[in-house]
UniProtKB/TrEMBL annotation:
S-adenosyl-L-methionine binds at G117, T118, G119, S120, G121, D140, W167, N190. Residues 96-194 form the Methyltransferase small domain. Belongs to the protein N5-glutamine methyltransferase family. PrmC subfamily. This is Release factor glutamine methyltransferase. It comes from Herbaspirillum lusitanum. The keyword Repressor does not apply. It holds the Pfam family MTS. InterPro entries: DNA_methylase_N6_adenine_CS, HemK-like, N5-glutamine_MTase, PrmC_N, RF_methyltr_PrmC, SAM-dependent_MTases_sf, Small_mtfrase_dom. Substrate binds at N190, P191, P192, Y193.
């Protein structure tokens, strides 16, 4: 697609000529010119100079090539908060807000929560921001992801303890010399669950996201199995395990939870009516 020459255009004319939908056009123009949405409106007759036009063209070329707009502008809103995102982490999605809501409903006062595979920190930061009384720990096997998550905790004034860990590996079975508490009132996770070779991995935004955060490179259930198998050693009695999973994985995840001895096993549907989160309670 041939892009218009934005040089000399007013902001209003640039918005009208731009090739994306209205929302993305506004986002890219605001990002390129470092304007708020209100400033974009109040300065609608301002003309773009050559440097601004060149930057805007570069951003549109990236988007038309398929790069997610969240990576281009470096941010995404989640649970009413703004999160920094980079190609080191998955882009937070509205579906995952269901997991946050379910965790908040089940987390007791002064309770403790472990977010496994935190990525951008979206789950942990959203919970810690909403419930400052809670003790929130977040782990990830990627140091680059943890750096992004730490920035998001700081920018959203959320108190979170971050741990570099391959699932439970860095968590002790007792509190002695542990980087984090051994047991929690609730474990939440949005792990890699896309089956290896799934065609979606080479389509849309997923092409640009970290593949190890998307797929377990196996049947899509191996990381969920690991989380379920280890949860008994890291939950208090009566604690909840809640996990996001794929659109067709609810039944097998419930079976795994039942086999591991969890009670009150169930699945919850997202806004599209898809069983998106499953969980159970430790006896």
């Amino acid at each position: 697609m041939k892009l218009p020459d934005f040089a000399g255009n007013t902001l209003a004319a640039a918005l009208k000529a731009a090739p994306l939908d209205a929302l993305e056009n506004r986002m890219l123009l605001c990002h390129a010119l470092r304007l708020t949405r209100v400033q974009l409106i109040t300065q609608s007759e301002r003309q773009l100079d050559a440097a601004e036009a060149a930057l805007l063209t570069q951003l549109y070329e990236r988007r038309l090539h398929g790069e997610p707009i969240a990576y281009i502008v470096g941010a995404r809103e989640f649970y009413g908060l703004v999160f920094k995102v980079t190609p080191a982490v998955l882009i937070p999605r509205p579906d995952t807000e269901l997991l946050v809501e379910l965790a908040l409903e089940r987390l007791p006062q002064q309770g403790s929560l472990l977010d496994m595979g935190t990525g951008s920190g979206a789950i942990a930061v959203a919970v810690a921001h909403t419930r400052p009384d809670a003790s929130v720990t977040a782990l990830d096997a990627s140091a680059d992801a943890l750096a992004v998550a730490r920035d998001n905790a700081a920018s959203n004034q959320a108190r979170v303890n971050f741990v570099l860990s391959d699932w439970y590996a860095a968590l002790a079975t007792s509190n002695a010399n542990a980087q984090a508490p051994a047991r929690f009132d609730l474990i939440a996770s949005n792990p890699p669950y896309i089956v290896a070779g799934d065609p979606h991995l080479s389509q849309g935004d997923l092409r640009f996201e970290p593949v190890d955060a998307l797929t377990d490179h196996q049947d899509g259930l191996s990381d969920l199995r690991t989380i379920i198998a280890g949860a008994g050693n890291h939950l208090h009695s009566g604690g909840w395990l809640l996990m996001e999973h794929g659109y067709d994985q609810a039944a097998p995840v419930r079976a795994l939870l039942n086999a591991a001895g969890f009670t009150e096993v169930q699945s919850w549907r997202d806004l599209a009516g898809i069983e998106r989160v499953s969980g159970g309670r430790l006896v």
